[in-house]
């Protein structure tokens, strides 16, 4: 698309100018303030309603007074007409900005009522929306500023939006292709089937964190076990040998004591007593266990039934409260719905109040039919939109109320069924409770030691003890000496056992320490494996960064785009910074290279969008050389030798 002609009239101090390049490159020269940038502003304003820098300029269009104010000019037309050549066809776009003045009936004076803008394409007047739609058909969205104003993409467009444009233009590199092109990344293929690389990295980092926390705790646990180890003395093997010898000596001495005290008859009687005492103990245990079993079962049943009945009662009470609340809410919903139906009917019956008059309220003259119809249609459209919005709001509110009612009624049904089931369960439990309480009341705890069988065994024990006493009358002194020796041997045995217990305790702790050391090695290997996987993800990201940047940068001749930035912690963060010769566009790049990068971007994006627009290069005197541009170029050059604008059209 090329600029064939631009006609400017009373625009930002430029009274009139007519430039007709007919699609050829143009060079405009003039001193500062002579109106060079005004030509670019006029072109941009006609196309978009904004200045060349994308900012609103309506307050700058009219001529300013010396004090900087903008006085009324009585209705002068401030117009810009642009003729574009698109695919061999000329399209004329015109935008006029002027004051609105109204004359009141019966007076000769006019009153200023603000400003208005008039639009036309190929001489056909149209409303603003239609004009903007037709312009958008030629150049969509932000494309006009991007392709006409070289520096716009790098300076005015947010980096996120720049990145989005480039990714749409060049496409993203699929993870599968990254792995296909880098065989070393093959272990990641399965992991990335159901996860993004970012999610997989989070999984690895979480595992590494847990692994590291456990590994860090092991030395402290080992130190704790080491500190708990008992002090040992002597040799374990010697202590075990001594213990066996002492135990044998004690056993021999105990046999000797038995022989001293008892002889054969005493031993038999003692054996009989031991048997009887064992039977008595067993009798008491079994007797009490039988009673405890019967009583315990009944008590557990009673307690369980009571607890369950109490919980079910609480549940029924809570459910009943919620049932009453839900029923009340449903009744309220019915009332609200009835009110909404009545309100909907009233709104539906509202008729359009056709109050449009066909005469001017000021002068009384009859208005044109099309003007009356336009006003009527505008009011009718507004009425219909408002009415539809009201009906829609009422309908949506009714739906919400009915949906809430349905939920409340569903809840009532569910809770009532639950209460019925709970009450049935309470009835069952109450019957079980009654039976168990009767059984428990009938249980009397008798004393085992008063039972006939127990008393018979007790009498026999007492009789046998009397026999033993009479047999033990002699040999008491010899027996006492043997007992003292047995006691001393027992003390020696206990001392050896304590020392050996310390050895056994330490052996158990040492075994646990070895287990912890083995676990520490296992964790180290696991951590190493996780590190390798994490390193693979970093290699993947680096490969993807390179593939993405290589793909994007292949579309440009001079400029390169940095699409990712590596942080101090090694993480990659998205960005979109144009660079020439290693210097970022917005961080130290000189003016010439900035324009070089900008025009390179314009060329690439023109190919992507499939359209070229006239490119305006302001301050062109600042550039000694510029790259070729695949579009019509309008150069604006500050030249003190030209007091007035000079327009040169290339052959």
Main sheet properties: 6 strands, antiparallel
Helical/strand content category: alpha+beta
In angstroms, what separates the terminal alpha carbons?
18 Å
* Overall body shape: elongated
- Enumerate the strands of the largest sheet in spatial order, edge to edge or round the barrel: 2-1-4-5-6-7
CATH class of the domain at 264-456: Mainly Alpha
Tally of individual helices:
14
Number of strands: 13
Query: What CATH architecture of the domain at 264-456 do you see?
Result: Orthogonal Bundle
InterPro entries: P-loop_NTPase (IPR027417), Rad50/SbcC_AAA (IPR038729)
Domain Rad50/SbcC-type AAA: 8-276
Coiled coil: 229-343, 412-439, 499-533
Protein name: AAA domain-containing protein
Overall description:
It contains 14 helices and 13 strands. The strands form three sheets. It has a six-stranded antiparallel β-sheet, with helices on one face. It has 651 residues and is an alpha+beta fold. Among the domains are: 2-139 and 611-649, Rossmann fold, CATH 3.40.50.300; 264-456, Helix Hairpins, CATH 1.10.287. The mean pLDDT is 88. InterPro entries: P-loop_NTPase (IPR027417), Rad50/SbcC_AAA (IPR038729). This is AAA domain-containing protein.
